[in-house]
Amino acid sequence: PIYRDMIRLSGARDVADLLRLVPGFQSSNSFETSAPLASYHGGFDAYSNRIQVLVDGRSVYSPYFIGSVGPGLQAVALSDVERIEILRGSNSAAYGARAMLGVINIVTRHTVDTLGAQVGVASGDNSIRDAQARIGWGNMDAGFRLSMDRRADASLAGSNGSNLVGRVNFSAELRPTFRDEVQLRAGNLEIDAGKGFANNIDNNLRGTSFESRYEQLDWRRSLAADEDLALSLSHSSESYSDVFPYSLIGLGINDSIGISGSGTSSNDTLSLQHTFRHDDSLRVVWGGELRREQVTSMALYNTDLPFVTNFTRLFGNVEWRLAQNWLLNAGAMAENNSVSGSNVAPRLMLNWRAAEGQTLRAGVSRAFRPPSTYENFANVRYYWNGHLLAVTAVATGDVAPEELLVRELGYLG
C-alpha cells in the first residue's frame, strides 16, 4: 500500500503520479493530457481498461470511454486519501472482469481524522495553479467532511490548451447503533481540457469538457465478533462534450464543420457481501452484485437509443490455513453479461512460509474482460448536409471476451 505519509512526501499531484512508484506499473499522459492512465505489466493503450480502479469500494471505470480509468484516477483529491492499495496481477475472482490485470483501491480518510478547516494553495512552473479547501465536523458517532479543490496547469509541452480539474466531495460516517455503520458519499468531477493537433483532419484543435457525478450508500452490520454483512448501493453518471472541426477541403470547399463526439453514460450498482471466520484456520467471504450500465451517443453509435448492459455476479473466496506455515486461497466469480454471455473466473493459490519473512507462492487463475459497448456496437459516421463524409469505426458485434490464464510462482522477502 501507499500510505498517507508517503503520499505527502512524494510531491505528487494526482494518483497516476503515485503509481509511477509501484514496481511493474506504467503511467502516462501521452494519449490524452487530461486523462492520466496506468496499467500493469503491459496491456497499455489509450484507455487502459484492463485494471479495476475503486474509490472506497466504488468502481470508477468509465462506461463511456471503453472502461478507461483516466477520469476515475482523478475522482478524489490526494489530500483526502488515506492509502492506496495496489493488487498486482489478475483479481477477477474477487473483483470481476475489470480486474483482469490488477486492482487499484483508493481509500479516503475517516471523517474523524479531518475535523476542522484546512486551506491550501500551490503554484509552480508550467502554469501550475492548485487550490484546496476542506471542512470537517462531528464525532465518532456522526462525522462529516466537505472538500473542494481544483488542479490547473498548462498541460504537456506541444499539446493544445490547458487542463483544469475541479472536484467537490462530501462524506458522512454514522454509527446509529453499536452494531451498524453507515457511510454516505457524493461528489462531482469536472475536467476541462484542450485536445487535438493543428492540421490533423481527424483530431483537430478544440476544447473538451467531461463531468461525472456519484452518490454512494454503504451499510455494514456486525453479526458477531467474527462475522459481518455489508450492503453497497451507488449511482454514477458521465457527460462528455467534444466538438471538433472537420475540414471540407476534400470536397472543394474552403471551410470546416463541427463533428461531435459527445454523449452520456450511467452506472448503477447493488452489492451484498457476507464475511465470517469459522475458526482460527478458516475465513470465508461471499456475495453477489447487480450492475447496470447505460451509454447514449449519436456520435459514437449513429442512434439516439441507449445501449444497456446488465451484469449479474456471484463470488466466493476461502482462506484456509492448512498448517502453521501453509495457507491456501481459493475462489471464483461467476459473471453473466446480458450482451456477451457468462464466464467463470477461478483462482487457486498456495502460500508456504519457509522462514520468518520468507514466503513462496504458487497458483493459477483465469480472468476475462467482456467487450465494452463501443467494441460491440460502434458506428461512427461523419455527415454534412445529408451526405456521408466518412466512416471511421463500425463494430461487427462478433467481439469475444478477452481471456487471460495466469500460472504464477512468487517470492516475498
Structure description:
With 413 residues, the chain is mostly beta strands. The chain has helices at residues 4-10, 15-19, 92-95, 298-301, 373-377; strands at residues 2-3, 25-28, 37-40, 52-55, 58-59, 81-88, 102-108, 116-124, 128-138, 142-153, 163-177, 180-195, 206-224, 227-247, 256-260, 263-279, 282-296, 307-323, 326-337, 341-355, 358-369, 379-384, 387-394, 402-412. It has a 15-stranded antiparallel β-sheet that branches.
User: Uncertain spans, ≥5 residues at pLDDT below 50?
Assistant: none
Query: What helical percentage do the residues reach?
Result: under 10%
Total beta strands? 24
Structural class: mainly beta
Series of H and E elements:
EHHEEEEEHEEEEEEEEEEEHEEEEHEEE
Shape, please? globular
Q: What composes the largest sheet? A: 15 strands, antiparallel
Mean pLDDT across all residues, rounded?
90
What is this structure, in a nutshell?
By secondary structure, the protein is mainly beta.
Tell me the layout of helices and strands:
Elements: E1 2-3, H1 4-10, H2 15-19, E2 25-28, E3 37-40, E4 52-55, E5 58-59, E6 81-88, H3 92-95, E7 102-108, E8 116-124, E9 128-138, E10 142-153, E11 163-177, E12 180-195, E13 206-224, E14 227-247, E15 256-260, E16 263-279, E17 282-296, H4 298-301, E18 307-323, E19 326-337, E20 341-355, E21 358-369, H5 373-377, E22 379-384, E23 387-394, E24 402-412
Parallel strand pairs: 4-7
Antiparallel strand pairs: 1-6, 2-3, 4-5, 6-7, 8-9, 9-10, 10-11, 11-12, 12-13, 13-14, 14-15, 14-16, 16-17, 17-18, 18-19, 19-20, 20-21, 21-24, 22-23
